[in-house]
Each structure stands twice: as C-alpha cells, then as structure tokens.
Write a structure and sequence with these properties.
Blueprint lengths: L1 H19 L3 E4 L6 E5 L5 E4 L2 E3 L6 E5 L9 E5 L5 E5 L9 E4 L4 H4 L3 H18 L19 E4 L4 E4 L2 E2 L6 E4 L5 E3 L4 E10 L3 E9 L2 E8 L1 E2 L6 E2 L4 E4 L10 E8 L2 E3 L2 H4 L5
Parallel strand pairs: 8-10
Antiparallel strand pairs: 1-2, 2-5, 3-4, 3-6, 6-7, 9-12, 10-11, 12-20, 13-19, 14-15, 14-18, 15-16, 16-20, 17-19, 20-21
Length: about 270
Amino acid sequence: MLKPFIALLLFMWVVVPASAAQPDLKGDFVQGGLVQGHTVPGTKVSLNGRLVTVTPDGRFVLGFGRDAPETPILQSVTAAGKRLVRTLKIKKRQYRIQRIDGLPRKMVTPSAAALLRIRAEGKAISAARAVFTPVPHFAGGFIWPAKGRISGVYGSQRILNGEPRRPHLGIDIAAPTGTPVVAAAPGTVTLTNTDMYFTGGTVIIDHGHGLSTVYLHLSAISAKLGQMVKQGEHVGKVGSTGRSTGPHLDWRVNWFQERLDPRLLVGAMPK
C-alpha cells in the first residue's frame, strides 16, 4: 500500500515545479531598484498590467522608479495557461532636498521658443530609451563611468533659484572639465548630441532588455551613433554644458521610461 503512495508523491514533485513555479527574481526591491527575473520559457509576464518582454530562454528585467508603488503586482501565465500572481514588496525611500542657486533664469523658466526645442529633444531622448534589444549586455554588471566627488544623488527634490522643480534622477559626479567618461557596461550607442538645452553634450547607450545609461553635460563626445562600445571604453569628457553650474557628469540609468538609481548597480566609488 505504501509503494503506490510514494510513487504518487514522486510524480507530483517532478511535474509541479516545471510548470507552476513563480519566476525567480533577484535584485534591489526598492524604489530606484533593478530586478532581474527568470521563468519557464514561453511564459508571459506583466507588471501592474504592463506586459514585460521575456526572451526565448525565459529572462526578463523589472525596473522600479523613484515613486514606484510599494506593492506592485507581478503576473505570469505559462504556455500551458497556468496563471500565477505575486505581490511584490518595494521599499519606500526618503529623498533629500537639494537647493541650487545662480542658474540663468532661462534655464529655470524657459521661453516659449525654448520649450519647443525642449519638447523635440525630449522626444529624441524618449525614443532612445524605448529601444529593446534581446541581448543582455548588462549581464556582466556596471562600473562607474567617471571618478570624482558625488555632488548630487538620485531622487533628491531640486529647488532651483528658490523655485521647486522636478527631482534629480541621476548621480552627479563632480570632476575637472576633460575628465574621461567611459561606458558603464557594453552596449550600442543610440543617441549623441553635443548641444541639448538642459543636458548639453549627451550620450545614451542601450544595454539590452530596455536598460540604458545616459551621460550628460559632456564637453566632448567620442562615441558614434550606432557604435557598439565595450565596458570601460571612452565615450566623452566631463563638462559643464547645458543647465549646469560647474563641471560634472550627470549619470543616469533607465529601464525604458523608468528612472533607476545608478548607485544601486555599482556600489561605492573606487579610490
């Protein structure tokens, strides 16, 4: 009587995990964090109702912006039709307030003509951030793109010339003009522009799965549009172009249109 019961248990152990297990998730479950996932190939995944691209081998990425909800819903549907729902827990953060004075008034409150230019540049940036390529160039991790003093942090509420403005969504690395800036991870250059209204010299690199890095206020750009760069390859030089009060690199990380905290990907600044 015992043998059939044991055989049934073994059968259940073999069948269930392959078809009904929740996706495996690893990363920073915090506002501004990046999470990498793996599931059974053929599974459809969505986050808060938004479909997430899953590669043929079952890999996907999730990004949580500055004000991401604390309990997003992850849903997966296997090829066999099995529906699994999981409520994630995202840690809420407290952000600093940063006051910056001495900016030209036109950079704080642009003219009507400048707003037209800003909108056009914004569309170009959004298009570069919307790129999806299936190759996970980011899989080997990220490095700091420049060395210097951290002068601005992710998420801080900006008060410009005494007027509240959008929060800062990157990390500012203060360094002398001309300091080398390198690619934080391998990828393809999807945007270069030497003179954007707010960001000045700008480079965007696609690292796969909707992940991109952005390098702002550059004094010079060496990367070429469409170029495949290696991690650590020179892409430009630190500057003070666009809306800036001094030479620094504003480094940002995106998952499509979500802005992530670069510091969570690289740890402490190397000496």
